[in-house]
Design goal:
extended; mainly beta
Length: 163
């Protein structure tokens, strides 16, 4: 039945790869000699000063509003990973949460009125789940469990039952 297939173990799960995919897996390729990797010279290239790295910004975890008109995301544009939202048609984003703590994994309520996200305290990665009105406002800690980690909040389709 699985003749010619390669079996990969992923944690407790197994994945069958057909011969066409197995042939291009990392196990069947020769190891590249690092000395054989060459980049084209660039006379305009220069070392990046360490200070410039402080001005590098990231965006992560975008989520569309239920009506498709807005996007919520996390960015460290203000120096900390906080929640922001922007109109899907463009424009300058609005900061929803101002905090020294990190916020990730935002998700909209099905009716578009709330955004739930995870936030840790002082980088401890013991995430609590919080909610903020989609238009901004008072943040509510939904879990308040300092010794337990809650992550990746989800809504049921109707917003009333457990998924």
């Amino acid at each position: 039945m699985n003749e010619g297939f390669t079996i990969l173990r992923l944690g407790r799960d197994f994945l069958l790869l057909p011969p066409a995919l197995a042939a291009s897996s990392p196990d069947s390729r020769d190891i590249t000699d690092p000395k054989a990797i060459v980049s084209e010279p660039n006379a305009a290239a220069y070392p990046i000063p360490v200070e410039d790295l402080f001005y590098t910004r990231s965006i992560s975890g975008p989520a569309w509003s239920p009506d498709g008109q807005q996007v919520v995301f996390s960015t460290d544009m203000s120096g900390r990973f906080n929640l922001w939202k922007v109109n899907a048609s463009g424009g300058w984003p609005l900061q929803l949460v101002q905090s020294d703590e990190r916020q990730f994994g935002a998700t909209w309520s099905p009716d578009g009125k709330w955004i739930v996200y995870q936030q840790d305290t002082a980088g401890n990665e013991l995430w609590d789940l919080y909610a903020v009105p989609a238009g901004g406002g008072k943040v509510v800690n939904l879990t308040a469990t300092p010794e337990i980690r809650e992550e990746r909040p989800l809504w049921s389709r109707d917003g009333k039952t457990w998924p």
